[in-house]
Design a protein that fits this description.
Bound molecules: NADP nicotinamide-adenine-dinucleotide phosphate
Order of helices and strands: EHEHEHEHEHEHHEEHEEHEHHHH
Distance between the termini: 37 Å
CATH class of the domain at 2-140 and 172-197 and 261-274: Alpha Beta
CATH superfamily of the domain at 2-140 and 172-197 and 261-274: NAD(P)-binding Rossmann-like Domain
Shape: globular
Domain NmrA-like: 2-280
Protein name: NAD(P)-dependent oxidoreductase
Radius of gyration: 19 Å
Number of strands: 11
Largest sheet: 7 strands, parallel
Strand content: 15-25%
Pfam families: NmrA
Length: 284
């Protein structure tokens, strides 16, 4: 049996759709914290088990008879996020899960600016300590976050973002989901670490140029605002302080090159070229 945490999220839902092309719905367990909120019809076809990352007993119940677990990283941050992810690893170990496939952060290092990287490093360490087989997908930023990153730039013709000349190897979340389905059903991925990126890294100035080219009717520029102004703007949009902190840390991470690494692992996992950023932008 293959179980998936965060199954009702974007990556979880997409992975289940790819998995259903490879295994029977009865072999898939979608672990969600709010079964009553499920709307996706594909997920409704697979087995649903309820577990909140904060509830060890629910997690253990949900992992009964599971051999392979896709542990999708949590949306919580800081110590809460670390504890939630550790709960999942401990439950997997306790219930005899054989392999964990975990969605981690690109090229993690202990002095990373991006706060989520520290959580990912702690969870990788917990998984290693558990002695279970593992596969880590160290994901770069999703292309699908670009609309949120650029805000209303299509109207204002300006991307206001404090990333300096830092580049991002944006990657399609759908491509990641397809690669995960291949890993979950493949046999040669035990104890492997994959850096999951697009095929090119772009600075925000280059991103603005690409949007200008692909969306022929607009000319967009990048303005490298200060971290202070960025934070003030986030707070003015009623974004909670912990989320603002995470977003500021992400911008600082981009600025210092934490998302610029480019790797061919995704192309090999998909056995085709990953989606190019220009193609994604055309679809916006
Ligand atoms: N690489 C990137 O660019 C990027 C961008 C955003 C996020 N991420 C990370 O990648 C993960 C997957 O991305 P995504 O787009 O699928 O995110 P998403 O759509 O926000 O899905 C996250 C899932 O986590 C579940 N979840 C959160 N807290 C939980 C808890 N306490 N107990 C049980 N489930 C919980 C949510 O459940 P509900 O449906 O009940 O809310 C949701 O289904 C995210 O969780 C985040 O860690 C990466």
């Amino acid at each position: 049996m293959i179980a998936i945490t965060g199954a009702n999220g974007n990556l979880g839902q997409a992975t289940i759709q790819f998995l259903l092309q490879k295994v029977l719905p009865t072999e898939i367990i979608a672990i969600v914290r709010n079964p009553e909120k499920l709307t996706n019809s594909h997920i409704k076809n697979v087995k649903i088990r309820k577990a909140d990352y904060n509830n060890q007993q629910e997690l253990e119940e949900a992992l009964k008879r599971v051999t392979t677990l896709l542990q999708i990283s949590t949306t919580s941050t800081g110590e809460t996020g670390k504890r939630q992810e550790k709960n999942v690893v401990l439950a997997a170990k306790a219930m005899g899960v054989k392999r964990i496939v975990y969605t981690s952060s690109l090229t993690p290092k202990s002095n990373a600016h991006f706060l989520a990287t520290h959580q990912a490093m702690a969870t990788e360490e917990e998984i290693r300590k558990s002695g279970l087989d593992y596969t880590f997908l160290r994901n770069s930023l999703y292309m699908e976050v670009i609309p949120a990153l650029i805000g209303n730039a299509m109207e204002t013709k300006e991307i206001r973002y404090p990333s300096g000349d830092g580049r991002v190897s944006f990657v399609s979340r759908l491509d990641i989901a397809e690669a995960i389905a291949n890993i979950l059903t493949g046999s040669e991925h035990d104890n492997q670490i994959y850096e999951i990126t697009g095929d090119t890294a772009y600075s925000f100035t280059e991103l603005a140029q690409l949007i200008s080219i692909e969306k022929k009717c607009i000319k967009i520029n990048h303005t490298d605002i200060s971290e202070k102004v960025f934070r003030e703007e986030l707070i003015s949009y009623q974004i909670p302080v912990d989320v603002a902190d995470l977003l500021v840390s992400m911008a600082n991470g981009i600025k210092s090159g934490e998302f610029s690494y480019v790797d061919r692992a995704l192309e090999k996992l998909l056995d085709r070229k990953p989606l190019a950023l220009a193609e994604y932008i055309k679809s916006l």
